[in-house]
Design a protein that fits this description.
alpha/beta, TIM Barrel, globular
């Protein structure tokens, strides 16, 4: 039966010029073969040094060529605000992506898409994908129509309520097949863009509630993501539209320390430039493209060993930076979210790897982290 389902999916993939949500739904059935999944490791193992886990990562890594390896870092979006199904299908067929952001759609539609895209990867012999969502309490019901109703983040006032509503969100993500949640927002809320998306102005509350959100999310085998590093709360402006500056002290950086100590799986870096800061001035470059911020500050100084993901690379705060996808990879980002041109990013990274051995090894380390997460999520 499973072979028949995959064959039907492949027939659509290879013979149709367009792939609508209706077509996807018509070939999607329950393809989840639990016997294929390795349950030896869980998300709790991701940040540990486990010899058996590392050996499995290495063995999988060695089966891949560099093009497929770099593809693990690239995360396009699908849904009403993402790329077309036809475009993302083409990327999946080539093995040029490692995950997909499900961006504005329905619970049932996204559930079908998860099976559809993983069917393509399975039929082609590629690794399964990491599916992600912006499932913050404030955004989840708008981003994924059909999920159970939860209140806006800033209206959740008690720790028990954080646990309760986070559990609802995580259960819905489990049902869809979403593995990575781009939440919680740990910025303070004075910024109009952050506004009701964070747990408020009191940073002790934001930190404690965010830690609870992370725990419940990851206990449900969904990777949580603290954002927006190095801190979007006390700036003026919207990085969706333009480059925004932190002027002087980065007031929110230390809020990430308890998140890291608490074992958050991933951290999202924002398109924020830093000025009037002798140690961390980015000289008009967004943090996503700054090695000083991503590697020297987040990875080296704060000791973060998890996945570093960019904010969307089609946003106004970064899109005008030449070869911004390559620069983000050079800065130390492990996942490149929503590049404008996935192919250009992929091959610019490959070209740089060809003449820069240190960069090549850095990319390899990023790819191995993505593979490790897929194992710990039970996808491999």
């Amino acid at each position: 039966m499973r072979f028949l389902i995959i064959s039907l999916v492949c027939l659509i993939v290879f013979s149709c010029s367009a792939h609508t949500e209706k077509e996807i739904s018509s070939v999607v059935t329950n393809l989840n073969d639990e016997s294929k999944k390795d349950t030896s490791f869980t998300l709790a193992d991701f940040l540990t040094e486990n010899e058996g886990l590392n050996q499995k990562v290495e063995s999988i890594f060695q089966t891949m060529n560099d093009t497929i390896r770099v593809g693990q870092m690239i995360v396009p979006a699908t849904g009403r605000l993402g790329k077309s199904t036809e475009h993302v299908t083409s990327l999946a067929e080539k093995g040029w992506i490692g995950g997909i952001l499900l961006l504005n759609g329905t619970k049932d539609g996204f559930t079908d898409e998860v099976v559809y895209y993983d069917s393509i990867m399975d039929a082609k012999g590629y690794l399964p994908l990491i599916f992600s969502a912006d499932a913050e309490p404030t955004l989840v019901n708008r981003k994924i129509n059909g999920t159970r109703k939860v209140p806006k983040t800033n209206t959740i006032k008690h720790l028990d309520s954080v646990n309760y509503f986070t559990k609802i969100i995580a259960e819905d993500l489990n049902q869809i097949g979403i593995n990575q949640n781009f939440a919680p927002v740990i910025d303070a809320s004075p910024n109009k863009v952050v506004s009701n998306r964070s747990f408020g102005l009191d940073m002790d509350t934001v930190i404690n509630f965010s830690k609870a959100f992370i725990s419940v999310t990851q206990n449900h085998q969904v990777a949580a993501t603290a954002k927006h590093f190095p801190g979007h709360g006390f700036v003026v402006g919207d990085t969706h539209k333009k480059l925004v500056y932190i002027d002087g002290e980065m007031k929110e950086v230390l809020n990430y320390v308890p998140m890291i100590e608490h074992g958050v799986t991933s951290i999202m870096v924002a398109h924020l430039a830093i000025k009037n800061n002798p140690e961390f001035d980015t000289y008009d470059m967004p943090s996503t493209c700054s090695r000083k911020i991503v590697t020297e500050l987040l990875k080296d100084s704060l000791g973060f060993k998890g996945l570093v993901i960019t904010d969307a690379m089609n946003m106004g705060g970064v899109v005008n930076v030449e070869k911004c996808g390559l620069k983000a990879a050079q800065a130390g980002c492990d996942q490149l979210l929503m590049p404008v041109d996935e192919e250009q990013v992929l091959f610019s990274i490959l070209e740089k790897m060809g003449n820069d051995e240190d960069f090549k090894q850095q990319v390899y380390a990023s790819v191995k982290k993505v593979i490790k997460l897929k194992i710990c999520l039970g996808k491999i």
